[in-house]
Design a protein that fits this description.
The chain is of the alpha/beta class. Helices cover 43% and strands 17% of the residues. The chain is built from ten helices and seven strands. It has a seven-stranded mixed β-sheet, sandwiched between helices.
């Protein structure tokens, strides 16, 4: 299990999204390592963390939690937000405050849930991933950064970040997709009592604003910040406003 620790101060755990690794948090390191001890988690099967078995949401949350301090704030993005939610349900006394970026309790549309991705589109993406990994990931980056002013620079940065991925690691990404496909935490959201900041890009198509609005209605201490013009990675595309919201939340609590 690879967790890089940088900075000093209160503990802030950062969990990245699917297909990425903790290097995605470079802007957060630059802005917050002088105020917090940042725990940069590589999700098992991604980055420098080996695959674990069984590979399910409960086990991921337990394995990651074992490597963390007794109390911490947590910031989860995309898949990382799902893991952060599960950790808050399993270990409520370890977590102080929660920040969910592009978060959702359920990634896939259901009969009574239309705030996610259609299962057909999801399965098509999974099939393309194994046929042509590189082009599929570039399309994925483009979707996440849609409408960003510096989209070409950001896509190049993400591409470089993951260019070392080998075939075995590509296969492990399927396990992460299974987590997104199979988990639905909607019935448990109202059990979360932590102060929670929800941040979502106004134009996010992967975890749309409607999912965050629904979560805010269910959380006992939830607040929502919608970042105008942003898509799925607001901390890269709109860093100034993102860090302003994050700083205000962490300082105020």
């Amino acid at each position: 299990m690879h967790i890089k620790r940088i900075g000093h101060g209160k503990d802030l755990v950062l969990i990245h999204g699917w297909g990425m690794h903790s290097g995605i948090w470079e802007p957060v390191i630059e802005n917050f390592s002088n105020q917090y001890t940042l725990h940069l988690v590589d999700i098992p099967g991604m980055g420098k963390s080996p695959v674990i078995a069984p590979y399910d949401l409960n086990h991921l949350a337990k394995v990651i939690s074992k490597e963390l301090p007794l109390n911490f704030d947590i910031l989860g993005w995309s898949l990382g937000s799902l893991i952060a939610l599960k950790m808050s349900l399993l270990y409520p006394n370890k977590i102080n405050r929660i920040v969910l970026v592009g978060g959702t309790p359920c990634f896939i549309n259901q009969a009574n849930w239309s705030y996610g991705v259609d299962v057909k589109d999801f399965n098509d993406f999974a099939n393309k991933l194994f046929k042509n990994y590189k082009s599929t990931m570039i399309n994925f980056y483009t979707l996440q950064l849609m409408h960003s002013k510096n989209i070409k620079v950001l896509i190049k940065k993400l591409k470089k970040m993951n260019e070392e991925l080998d075939s075995q690691e590509v296969k492990s990404l399927q396990l992460g997709l299974d987590i997104l496909l199979k988990n639905d935490l909607r019935n448990e959201i109202n059990q979360i009592k932590h102060q929670t900041l929800l941040m979502v890009g106004e134009l996010d198509r992967l975890t749309p604003k409607s999912a965050s609005l629904w979560m805010k209605s269910q959380l006992k201490q939830g607040q929502l910040k919608v970042i105008e013009g942003a898509s799925h990675i607001p901390f890269l595309s709109h860093p100034e406003i993102f860090f302003n919201h994050l700083d205000q939340f962490l300082l105020a609590a």
